[in-house]
Amino acid sequence: MQGNPGRRPISQKEPEPERGADAPEWLSPDALEHWPTIARQLDEVGVLTKMDQVALGLYCEAFAGWKNANDRVVKHGAIVKSPNNYPIQSPFLAIANKAHEQMVKLLIEFGMTPAARTKVEVAKKPAKKDSALSKYL
């Protein structure tokens, strides 16, 4: 509505990759289970393209790693006993924290956080053509 307040040239050469993406074959079973949920959400808002397959796959793998490590932290606690019987931080807590950082970075790339979403612009889907039946009715 305000035009181009920064007066920077707007790129007319930005690529327009084909929408949608299939899950990569290299996804682990846990990541593959998470893929449809995220892919559907991104596709519905017009953000997911075939070029995003690897990035979304990496997000799903980070999510699977986080979930696995977090489940172990929940089960065994954040503090565990070392072989010498001293209390130490669970190694799974560090794994979960690292995966969490990776997930947040990738969520931002896809505009899936409230602040990041304000910076995402998508072209509106073209209106669907009326079918012969709907024209008749």
Description of the molecule:
- The structure is a single chain.
- This protein has helices spanning 29-44, 53-76, 91-109, 114-117, 132-136, and strands spanning 79-81, 87-89.
- The protein is mainly alpha-helical and 137 residues long.
- The protein has a domain at 29-119.
- A two-stranded antiparallel ribbon has the order 1-2.
- α1 (29-44) crosses α2.
- The radius of gyration is 21 Å and the shape is elongated.
- The two termini are 38 Å apart.
Largest sheet: 2 strands, antiparallel
- Element order: H for helix, E for strand: HHEEHHH
Overall pLDDT score:
85
Percent of residues in helical segments? 40-55%
From the N-terminal CA to the C-terminal CA, the straight-line distance is 38 Å
- Apparent shape: elongated
Major sheet: arrangement of strands: 1-2
Radius of gyration: 21 Å
Estimated share of beta-strand residues: under 5%
Treating each run of at least 4 consecutive H or I residues as one helix, how many helices?
5
SSE class: mainly alpha
Low-pLDDT runs of 5+ residues are none
User: How many strands appear in the DSSP assignment?
Assistant: 2
Short recap of the structure:
This protein is mainly alpha-helical and 137 residues long. The protein has helices at 29-44, 53-76, 91-109, 114-117, 132-136; strands at residues 79-81, 87-89. It has 5 helices and 2 strands.
Keywords:
single chain, mainly alpha, 5 helices
List the helices and strands and how they pair.
Elements: H1 29-44, H2 53-76, E1 79-81, E2 87-89, H3 91-109, H4 114-117, H5 132-136
Antiparallel strand pairs: 1-2
Helix pairs in contact: 1-2, 2-3
